[in-house]
Every structure is written in structure tokens, then in C-alpha cells.
């Protein structure tokens, strides 16, 4: 089957990007060296649906070196990097993705990848699994299991499992210590601000930054905003997280209040309609909004448009919504995860651990699927310890 990508001639810069991240991914390098010899995935077909940039491409290559036959798609229309996709094709993967694909194309790409009839899947956000429980459920019987990268996908998986409808075992890679403690917190914390800063080219210091959600991602984003000199306000729905935010030194208030004060709004909740009509109505002229949660549903774009007289791009990845009363509100990266849609995602050193978790989760499925029921499993804890030890060794840090 032919790959579907934007342009194979873009491959050279994709190869350069992959080579760059390899320099900072000692855990994956270690795994690559070891498992390219033993090839545990030989004869197995794998589909990965993930943000298709250089770190993900390297994970894909590590699986291929370990014997897997790989088909890969993006997990968001704006996070695919076309040069990286082209480089992966040259490396022998089947790739179905391009940057800025329509919703229909996005579905087509997942279906094309599934046409390869995978044995193992790796999902990010739950769209691949949704297809395997919907229009492609006939393929589910071939699948020995898989793993899921992010909080939103894990929530969707647990809902399926609780309804008794999950068709194969899945590992919640997101819920491994070596994933969420570093990726969600420090990865999202840094890369979200990288995305916002490179997109706006504005100063963060002195601004009122409203962060919705004080979970793992929100904590990281708030910590880094504070370090950049912002005046940080947290909105939450969970009283315990709200108390935590207070003791971490932040102001906490409802969005109804925060909406009037904020200069920059950032959603990281995994929840719908966090910023909506009544909030847009009271925002200051020039207020900016971005989302780093998995789906583009946290800032209600339909409400935003309904209150606007015009919408126009004013800079790459920034749209101005001019309100009926003349105020201008700005939305970054169409409300899609700003760190990936307007940046390169998490730093390589962080994804090194997350993708170590992904590799060992897939290996665990490969070796143990016969004894795993169709529910959501945790990666065994000893693997967290092993990954942390490899990371420490790569940093030349010893412990007692
Ligand atoms: P989490 O479950 O640790 O935290 C979410 C927080 O949002 C919770 O404290 C919850 O009480 C709060 N919340 C829910 N609805 C709210 C509302 N309406 N207003 C205010 N607060 C609300 O989840 P985590 O791990 O922080 O992930 C958050 C989102 O970010 C998920 O969609 C996840 O998939 C995504 N994610 C994105 C990444 C990226 O690269 N941009 C990386 C990792 C996760």
C-alpha cells in the first residue's frame, strides 16, 4: 500500500530533525541498541497514531529496528510535520498524514493505517481505538493489545472498559510515573510556553495569565509561567487541586472573574467549553487564548465566532476575532494544542522517558497479552524504575 504524505522531497530536513532529537534521547538509544539485536517484534504489524514529529518518528524507527512492520498516522491535523513524514517513508514506514489535513482526510488516514491489519496499536487521544470499536471493529479480533499516550485517551478507554466494550487489553502509558510526572508536567509546562512565545513574540512577564486546570499539565504550565514573571491565576473545578494551587502561591477564582482580568488564557483540562460565550463577553480588548489540552473543545470556537463581526489571520497561527463592540480577541493555533500545532512539542529529553514507557508497554503486551483481560492496565512498576535508572545513568547522576 502506498503512503499518503505531502511531498517526499521534504525528506532531507526530516532526517536532520530526527538525527537532532536522537542526540538527546539516551533511553531510546539504549533500547534501540538492545532490541535491534533481538528483534522481539519480528513478524508483528504495528499502527501508531501520534503527533507525527521528530521524536515520534524516532520511536517508530526503534520499533522498526526491533522488528515491527510500521504504519503511522498523526493524532492531530496540525501537529504533523511533513518533512518528518517524508523521512519516515524513506526509512520504510507506511505513513498516512499531512499537516493541515481536513477531518475527512484525518479519518481516511487512520483507516488506511488500519488496512494494514495491525497486531499491536499505539494511540494518542483515543481516535484509533474509537475506529476499532466503530467502523473498523472487524479488525479488533486481530489485535493483541496496545497502549495509550495521553490523559484524554485514557479517560475514553476507561469508559469503554467500564461499559464492558473494550475489545483488547490496553496499557495506560500516560499513567506510568515515568510518563505523567515528567511529560505532562515539565514537557507541557515548557513546550506550551514555547508555542505561545514563538507564535506571539510577546513578553510574558507582568501579564495576567489565567490557567484552567491544575492537573499535571496545568501545574507545569503554571510553574513555568511564574518563572517567566507572569501573574498567574488558576481556575479549577476540583477543590483539592484548587487548595494545592493556593499553597503553590497562585490566585484561584472562577472563570467568570478571571475572564475580566486575563491577558493570556490557557486551557489544560481535557474538558469541554471551559471558556465560552459569557467569558468572551467580558474579556479585555486584546486578550489571547490558547489550549494545550488534547482536543480543540476547551475554548468554545462556535461561541467565539457567534459574538464576532469578523475573523481574520493576523500572524501565523493567530486569528483575530473582532467582537461586535470592537474588542479584538485572539485565538492561537485554532484552539488546538498550542505546543504541537504552533511548536515542536515536548523537548526530546522529556519524550525520551515517555517513549521508553511506550516501548516497554508494547513489549509487555507482546509478551503477556494471553494473561491480560480486556481492560486498562498499568505498566509494571519495575519498568518505571528501570527507565529512571537508565535516565540517571545517561545524566551521569548516581544515587544511594
Ligand atoms: P489531569 O486530569 O491531571 O488534570 C486536568 C485538571 O483539569 C483536573 O485537575 C480537573 O479538575 C481540571 N478541570 C476539568 N474541567 C475543568 C474546568 N471546566 N475548569 C477548570 N478545571 C477543570 O490531566 P492532565 O494530565 O493535566 O491533562 C490535561 C489535558 O492535557 C488532557 O486533555 C491531556 O490529554 C492533555 N495533554 C496534553 C499534552 C500536550 O502535549 N499538550 C501532554 C499531556 C497531556
From TrEMBL:
Family, as annotated: Belongs to the adenosylhomocysteinase family.
The record's InterPro entries line, in alphabetical order, gives: Adenosylhomocyst_ase-like_sf, Adenosylhomocysteinase-like, Ado_hCys_hydrolase_NAD-bd, NAD(P)-bd_dom_sf, S-Ado-L-homoCys_hydrolase_CS
Organism the protein comes from: Pectinatus brassicae
Instruction: Write the protein's name.
Output: Adenosylhomocysteinase
What is one Gene Ontology biological process annotated in the Swiss-Prot or TrEMBL record? S-adenosylmethionine cycle
Residues reported to bind NAD(+): 150-152, 215-220, 236, 292-294, 339, 346
- Recorded catalytic activity of this chain's protein: S-adenosyl-L-homocysteine + H2O = L-homocysteine + adenosine
**What Pfam families does the annotation carry?**
AdoHcyase, AdoHcyase_NAD
